[in-house]
Structure formats: C-alpha cells, structure tokens
C-alpha cells in the first residue's frame, strides 16, 4: 500500500496547483522560505525520532486501540489540509462543511435514525461531552448514570458540566447491571443513562433493549457511547463473524449516539462524531457570533457544536475512505469488521481449550481479555504472572508480541472461576484489541507465542 500511496501523492500536489492557479499569482513572502537541505535534514531527524514507536501497523501489535489510518484517509486529509479549511463555519470550509453534513447523514442512517442532528468532533471525549451537555439541557438538575465498566470520560465530563454522576455496578458479563440501575432510579433522580456498546476494557455490550424498557418506566434519556463499537452495527446479524443483532438493532431508539471514526472507521486522530435523534435539540446550541456565519443562510456546523475550529480535513479523509470502503455489511467496511470479529472468535476458541490460558469473558466484539493460569489461583498470583507475560512478549528480541494490561475487579473473575482466591480487589489480566483485519490470519502465531512465554 505504501507504493500505491506514494504514486498518488503526485495527484495531491497537482490538485493543489490547480486550486492555486484559479487566482492571480503572487510572490510568497521570503520570511516563510527555508532551504531544501535544512528541510530535508529536519525531516530525516523527525523520521529517526519516529522510529521510537511500536509497530501499530503489524498483526503482532495486538495491544491498545491503535492502528494506522487507511491510505485513502491520509490522501483525503492531506489534499484538504493543504487548503486547511475550518469546518466551524461555511465561511471557512464550504466544500468540507457540505461533505461533513453528508457524512453525518450517512452515519445516522447506518444507525437507523430517520431524522437527526449531528456533526464530527475532534475526539470521542468531546462527542460525549456534547451529548451530556444536551442531556443537561433536556433533563435539567437530573443525574447521569453509567456502568462501572464505562469509559472514565463520562465521570470527568459530568464534573466539567456540574452534573451529578452515579456509577452502576457491572454484572458478571461486564455489562451494566439493569437491576442495580432500576434500584438506583427508585432512590435517585436519574435523567440520563449511558449505554456503552463496546467497553474500552472488555468490549462488552450493555443490554440496550433492557435499558430502553427502563426508560419507559423512569423517563430518563439514553445516550449510547459506541465510540469503539459503533461501526459493528454493519455486521449485527448474529452470524459466526457477526455481533448481537438485538443490541445493535435497538440503537435507533437511543436519544444520542457517539461513534469514533478514528477507531474502526480507519481515520487518523482525531475524528469523533455525535448524533441526536431529535433535531430540535439544536436549540440548546444557539449563540451569536459577530465575526462569522455571514456568507450563507445555510446551517453552519458551528451553530450546532460546542467546538469552534475543527479540521475540515477530517471530513475529507472520512469521505475518501467511505468512497473506497462504503458502509456495507459484506463488501465495504463491514468486510473489514468481519475479519476483526473472526480473529476474536478464533483466539477465544483457542484460549477456551488451552491448558495455560483462561478467558475473562467471551468476546462480544474484537477485544479478547485473558489471563495465564497459575498454580496458586489467587488475584495476586495471576496479576504477577500476567505482568511478567506482558513484559516478556514485548521484549522478545526475535518474535515480539505487543499486548496490553487491564485491571478488572476480582469479583468479576471469581464469578466465573470460583476457585480464584480474592486476596486483592483488582486483578491484572492481559487484553488485546484485534482491530486490524490482518489479525485473522495471525491468530495461530499470536496464540502460540503467548503459550510459549507462559
């Protein structure tokens, strides 16, 4: 792909020349000039420093939620970045602003929204902040509830917004405990419940259909944080390489949804997205600006966003990617996700029959969490052995494998493995995000590497 990418860079430069040729020529100011040798030396120095990175592109990197963007995204980003549009207002990004509106409509349709309000953001954190900001206006004075396995961004954003927040225990499957949530709603005024579809640690899916039933009883809003798992809705068909049709099929009933294209949408950082089912919530964003919004009566994206400056290049990158890999279950982005899901099911099967490893949970997406079996079945012994395996796999000079560590409540493990002695509240286990389609062809090697180290 790098060779193909290199050949297309010329097209990007030619496009920039055509854009500039539409206006009168001018002499660039000499204060901006740098000599070729100095620029090349600086670039070489940077390339040297960038060698100090983990191989996020390689299948043997199976740790954090990291991978390079698709080359189509890089080309789209670069082509727009050379113009540097700002999607806050149509004054700053008329073309990429329109592209962003089209993209959010496509994403909303993917989730089943018949009407929507939404836009891209600079991150999933900001997207969740905006969802909670609207929730505060829609449910003034009422609290927010989320699972103990939810991303920490929700408690932080509640603090930023001055909203009371309650953490609900997770059940033995790592999902929000619906019974505990119901009990909480009877004693506290809960106005918003966050349902996580793809928890960061375990990849668990909160039981959205049950939460929708509780919404009818208690009158709260439901915000779906699908930053990681959102695109899996494309393969929600309960096939061996699919995911829960019941859970993902209920997303269209949520009041708001967040998804991160910079995860499974193959985009560079940062590119998040927030969507609302009711376009009328746009009234909560209303503000005036004396220095923008003056070139068009059409909707400026800054009028429905908390952020001001946002890179129009992010919209161009996602647009290019979806032209190449559309939101399709079999031939586009869905085919990529099926490979990731297949990798997880393959590895979980090997771990399930292993005499050296045990699963924390059955994976619901493409995140696999496991721990090495130890003679002493205790939380501290498992944590110690997991940390050793983590270090040894990563530092193997000939065959390095990059995993990640995860702290889970020992009670969650003990619920599945009663023989584990809970001599500590938390247990460190190993975790892998198999988010590259190439992982499906490398599971045998990954698994054997771990077993050899154990």
CATH class designation of the largest domain: Alpha Beta
| Mean pLDDT reading | 96
What sequence of helices (H) and strands (E) makes up the elements? HHHHEHEHEHEHEHEEHHEEHEHEH
Continuous helix count: 14
Number of domains: 2
Could you estimate the helical fraction of the residues in percent? Answer: 25-40%
Low-confidence stretches: none
Largest sheet: 7 strands, mixed
Number of strands: 11
At the third CATH level, what is the topology name of the largest domain? Aspartate Aminotransferase, domain 2
Q: What form results from the Cα inertia axes?
A: globular
Strand content: 5-15%
Quickly give the structural class. alpha/beta
Radius of gyration: 24 Å
- Biggest sheet strand line-up: 1-7-6-5-4-2-3
């Amino acid at each position: 792909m790098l060779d193909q990418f290199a050949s297309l860079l010329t097209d990007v430069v030619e496009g920039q020349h055509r854009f500039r040729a539409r206006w009168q020529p001018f002499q660039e100011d000499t204060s901006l000039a740098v000599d070729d040798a100095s620029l090349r030396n600086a670039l070489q120095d940077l390339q040297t420093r960038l060698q100090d990175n983990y191989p996020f592109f390689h299948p043997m990197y199976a740790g954090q939620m990291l991978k390079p963007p698709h080359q189509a995204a890089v080309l789209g980003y670069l082509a727009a970045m050379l113009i540097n549009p700002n999607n806050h207002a149509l004054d700053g990004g008329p073309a990429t602003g329109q592209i962003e509106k089209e993209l959010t409509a496509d994403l909303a349709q993917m989730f089943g929204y018949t009407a929507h309000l939404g836009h891209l953001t600079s991150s999933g954190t900001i997207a969740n902040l905006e969802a909670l900001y609207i929730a505060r206006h829609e449910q003034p004075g009422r609290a927010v509830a989320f699972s103990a396995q939810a991303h920490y961004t929700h408690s932080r954003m509640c603090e930023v917004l001055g909203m009371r927040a309650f953490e609900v225990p997770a059940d033995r499957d790592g999902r929000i405990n619906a019974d505990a949530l119901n009990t909480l709603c009877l004693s506290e005024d809960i106005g918003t419940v966050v349902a996580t579809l793809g928890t960061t640690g375990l990849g668990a899916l909160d039981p959205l259909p049950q939460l929708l039933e509780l919404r009818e009883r208690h009158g709260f809003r439901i915000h779906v944080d699908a930053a990681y798992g959102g695109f899996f809705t494309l393969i929600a068909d309960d096939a061996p390489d699919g995911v829960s049709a019941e859970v993902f099929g209920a997303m269209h009933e949520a009041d708001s949804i967040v998804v991160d294209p910079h995860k499974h949408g193959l985009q560079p950082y940062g590119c998040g997205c927030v969507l609302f089912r009711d376009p009328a919530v746009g009234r909560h964003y209303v503000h005036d600006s004396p220095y923008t919004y003056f070139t068009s009566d059409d909707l400026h994206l800054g009028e429905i966003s908390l952020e001001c400056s946002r890179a129009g290049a992010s919209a161009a990158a996602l647009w290019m990617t979806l032209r190449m890999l559309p939101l399709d279950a079999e031939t586009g982005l869905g085919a990529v996700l099926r490979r990731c899901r297949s990798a997880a099911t393959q590895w979980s099967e090997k771990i399930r029959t292993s005499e050296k490893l045990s699963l924390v949970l059955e994976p619901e997406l493409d995140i696999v969490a496991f721990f090495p079996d130890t003679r002493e079945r205790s939380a501290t012994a498992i944590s110690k052995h997991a940390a050793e395996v983590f270090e040894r796999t990563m530092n193997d000079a000939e065959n390095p494998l990059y995993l990640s560590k995860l702290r889970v409540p020992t009670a969650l493990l003990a619920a599945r493995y009663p023989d584990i002695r809970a001599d500590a509240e938390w247990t460190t286990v190993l975790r892998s995000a198999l988010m590259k389609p190439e992982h499906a062809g490398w599971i045998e090697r990954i698994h054997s590497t771990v077993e050899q180290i154990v």
